[in-house]
Amino acid sequence: MFGGWTFLYGMFRAFKMNKKPNLLTVFFLGTMYGLLIEVLQFILPTNRSPELLDFIADMTGALVAIGVLHVFFKKIFSTSTEPTT
What we know:
Blueprint: H1 2-17, H2 23-43, H3 52-80
Helix pairs in contact: 1-2, 1-3, 2-3
């Protein structure tokens, strides 16, 4: 889930800025969103408990999405800047 969210957020930032976004910022925001969910599970009475492994899974999903975005943006932004002859 966090991989999908991070991927979509990275794509949104790229199309909004019309250039490759800072992928470290995108990863940080995806990770902080996962941390926020775990903190809310601790605070709110929802019969759910926060777990470190859930947070690690969230981070892993965000990291995989960053890898996919890196490859995707490398193809898109490298071909669009090459002059055509």
